[in-house]
Amino acid sequence: MSRLFDKNLATLAWRNLRRNTRRNLATGLAIAAGFTAFMLAAGYAYRVQRVLSSYTVYALHVGHIGIYKKGALEMFSIKPKDYAMSADDQKIVDDVLKDMDNIEMSGRYLSGQGLIGNGCKTFPFMASGVDLTIEDKVMNHRTLKRWNEHLYKHRTGQSLWEFPDSFGAVSISAGLAQLLGKTKVHSELGEAKPVMITDCTAPDARALFGADANVQFAAGSWDGTLSALDGEIVGRFTTGLQETNNTAVTMSLAHLQKLLNTESIGNMSVWLKEPLLLDLTITNLRSKLQKAAPHLEALPWRDERLSPYYTGTMQFIFVMVSFIGCVLAVVIILSIFNSATMTVIERSQEVGMFRSIGYNSKTMRKIFLMEGFFLTGISLACGIVLGLLAMFLVNRLHITLEPPGVSGGIQLILSPNALIILVGSAIVSLLGVGSTWIAVTSVVRQNIAKLVSGAHR
Amino acid sequence: MNASPAIIQLKDVKKSYKLGETDVPALKGINIELKRGEFTAVVGASGSGKSTLLNIVGCIDDPDSGSVLVDGVEVTKLDDDSKSALRNRKIGFIFQSFNLVPVLNVYENVELPLLINPDIPRSEHQDRVSQALKDVAIDHLAKNLPDQLSGGQRQRVAIARALAGSPALVLADEPTANLDSVNSHRIIDLMLELNAKRGVTFLFSTHDEKLMARVSRHIQIADGLIKA
Prior knowledge:
The complex is a heterodimer. By secondary structure, chain A is α+β, with helices and mostly antiparallel strands. Chain A has two domains: about 5-55 and about 310-455, no CATH class; about 60-305, no CATH class. Chain A is built from 19 helices and twelve strands. In chain A, strand 6 (about 215-220) and strand 7 form a beta hairpin. The longest helix of chain A has about 40 residues, at about 20-60. The two termini of chain A are about 30 Å apart. Chain B has a single domain, classed as Rossmann fold, CATH 3.40.50.300. Chain B is about 35% helix and about 30% strand. Chain B has seven helices and ten strands. A six-stranded mixed β-sheet of chain B has the order 6-7-8-3-9-10. A four-stranded antiparallel β-sheet of chain B has the order 2-1-4-5. In chain B, a hairpin with a 2-residue loop joins strand 1 (about 5-20) and strand 2 (about 20-35). The longest helix of chain B has 18 residues, at about 180-200. Chain B is globular and about 50 Å long. The two termini of chain B are about 30 Å apart. The mean pLDDT of chain B is about 90. The interface of A and B includes residues 359 and 362 of A.
């Protein structure tokens, strides 16, 4: 068929939309409203995905790829010595990474637990020993800043990398600081010397806890002895999760190694320049590690063992959005199918006329499909505009949610994503055209004499 | 165009319809030959088989058996696309209820068959449509939409559409059934005039006795058989 002919068909299809304005308007509104709802749900899911993924990759130091000794994820907490990465392992990984493209940076990490005290009371802590050589880059990464702005708002004091390892700087979570009565951080106290508390039951004891930023750590070292170290609280942060907000401590890797009396690390984390190439990069890395250090394994950040909170949350949201999407798809299919069926039956005599003067069934179907496509397209455009407007309004209303397990409220922010809108539109267009195709196919293939006489109705 | 003087040849054409479990015969073995340029009316009572005959001649319905030749082509052996192409190039249709597309203006309605005819270049469309509209004397209404026209004017548009592609045969099923007597006579006069002027073969069905008198050849059909 010539382009001219297609243009004429398109003109006819376009004008046909005006023939039953009320029905087309109702169908169009159903599609537009459905797509708006989809955009809101998808905007929420996208926002959560971006926030949690950047939080996991950067703030939790998981990296895009985690390199561990095989079995470490299950056994490290029980037998840390056996499942840690030695200095030799670290050098091998450094050499492998040096020759690879798409590596933005890598760092060494160690975790450990013990007791933290203020001179009177002790509480359990979970410490992360972080690589200070890259901590600045990790915690100020543009991706983390873009999606986790709230982390910076809740941060008090200075950063670990501003202090030498010998200083013993630590950052503690807000909940733990409260438990310890450490209301101020190093920069707020100046050069205050550690305060000796002689009577922990005295009425002024609690005030004395906050008079300095000194804490004491005690832990069982990897060689089985008891180890203790001082630390100076230079910063306070929120983990965002109640589960960890009362126990989390961050310190330099060297400080934690000293506490645990080891030179090993728990894992290395690798950040990529282009995260979209994760699968390609990890395949390449695994093949290199297989040759150089087969006892090590590389895992993607979205592995359930590395990011259980992310994967659990996203699975739930995926199910929720998929369910909404399926309901909307059914609504859209039925609306268009109903509209197209009514239209084609009403116009069966006209279809007969077209067929009589030489239009074949394929061409007739094309006219109706164009109508369906135009109707869906216009409705989608309206749905997108409405969706963007609704997102803007929701974001402006500053609605705060308090989901279970999350410390403090989080603002409900919906983030539009062009790719999701594009893919969603393409799917809805396909559903629209597909529903029209099913509705019209049987009619345009009917006996022409019956169509012309109106007997088809 | 085929050199044969016969534009239509029907040999022993039979057609029946299902009515529940019963087969109701509509045509019981029809033999007809129509020469080029003839102006013929198929007459008969309602249910006699007039429309079925026209539908089969126009390739919009298939016979159960028999042979149908249109301009020398055996149409019973053609597939759907070939029949569509044959209808587009060789046959024009005029319907009782006009069947104009309400969202297209008169010019666009008349142009419809030309849009899918590869033998007629786009550059000829305007001349052909204008000529067809002049022939039916409604060229001044080219920009009007069908609902701005009277019944007689609409049927003229339908005739112009049937003639625009210069078909060898024009079929009209009760073309005056929806018109008053004045307009009915005008339409028949017009068809006669076009038959004489363009040499187009006309085959139309009617049960209007006043019109029958204006037509040179009648095919009388009753109970699915040709009577005269």
